Amino acid sequence: MHTTHEHLSEKPPRDLQRPVMAASVAVAVVMLVGKLGAWYITGSAAILSDAMESVVHLLATGFAAFSVWYAVRPPDRTHPYGHGKIAYLSSGFEGGLIMIAAVVIVYTAVGDLIAGPTLDELGIGLAITAALMLVNLVLGVALIRVGRRHHSLVIESNGRHVLTDMWTSLGVLVGVGLVQLTGIVWLDPVTAILIGINILWTAGSLMRRSVYGLMEQADPDDERALQAVLDRAVASGIVNGWHELRHRRVHNQVWVEFHLLFPNAMTVVEAHYRGSRVEGEVRALFPHADVVVTPHFEPEKGHDAAHPHGHEAPEPGRV
What we know:
Strand content: 5-15%
Strand order of the largest sheet: 1-2-3
CATH superfamily of the largest domain: Cation efflux protein transmembrane domain
């Protein structure tokens, strides 16, 4: 069991997220300049689609960086639960921009397919695209790991967007490479169309997660872990029962509420001591988050009389 001191010492510094996003913005600028240069040299619709995705990524990364800065602001009188929900707005905003980019990519590629593409210096364009793809691969994996470790939806979403950019670049390499090998120029706009359709899936995934977060959908893994802690407390005799478990996670903040039942004759001091033990177990489940645990103590006997309107229906095995 982790102590409260251990829990606090394991928390990462919130300011770590800011340089991570600043680095992501800087790389996004380099990506955009490089891809626009490759498109200017080659005239490839597929490479243009890759550059368009990078334009969106740069805008989204800028908003994500702002979101990280805003989300870690401490609670205040008008936002007593903090500012973390902006993370879900950032994720939805990024998904919406990706969707717009996909539509523009497909529209442009269809026009090239009808008119007939004019391509030049494909070898140079392929070399630039390959180099930028490797940079995106490293950055995307790093962002996702940091985001998951610190439960930052903003950073994780940004990392997924970077990997989407990487897969887009890989598709460009394959499509434009085939054009160079075969001389079949219509493969270029067809590649761009396929890329546009593919990134629509990523856009939908980001927007879906944003909606779920704003609607405060409970995390099933958190639910199971919390129930296990409370069940162990009952089995070990620390408490006589529990019910009314509720929890929510926003950015790197977690709120947990539950009711604990104690013997009627137990003193408040003893009940508080035992409840604090349970609270410590709950906190230990989230070592890298700011956790607010709100237990409510109730007597085992006379509980129903104290709540004539009742609680929500308890789950099987719960009091």
